[in-house]
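Lecture 7 notes: from sequence to structure.

We start with a single chain of 129 residues. Read the sequence below before looking at the structure.
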Amino acid sequence: MNKRELIEAVADELGTTKTASAEYVDAVLRTIVAGIQRDEKVALSGFGTFRRRTRKSREIINPSSKERMRLPVTVTVGFTASQTLKDEIRPDELDDGQADDAIREVKPDRAPEAEAATSEDVEKLSHCA
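Now the structure, written as tokens:
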């Protein structure tokens, strides 16, 4: 869903015009931004928390030139979904135990064993270097 679709959904939900709904959506977004700027955190009960996060300055290496570069401190926004929101988006057919089992199926406890490299594989790789 993008902003235009959100405005249309709000207009349908409230029975207002798209113009009025656009003003409501913009007002909510401006208020959230102002709250993050002022308080560093905006908590919406039943939805989640927006929080200003500061990333430390760090050194990186440009992969193509191998040049070391220093990235400055950056400020970003993080969002943590509330448990209520997480429960709302969970498929109805999954209860708590089934959800845990579904996660285990997708992400096995252990990676499959890799095959051992043969001497042929090692020789091919040594010619590439």
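The chain is about 50% helix and 20% strand. Keep this in mind for problem set 3.
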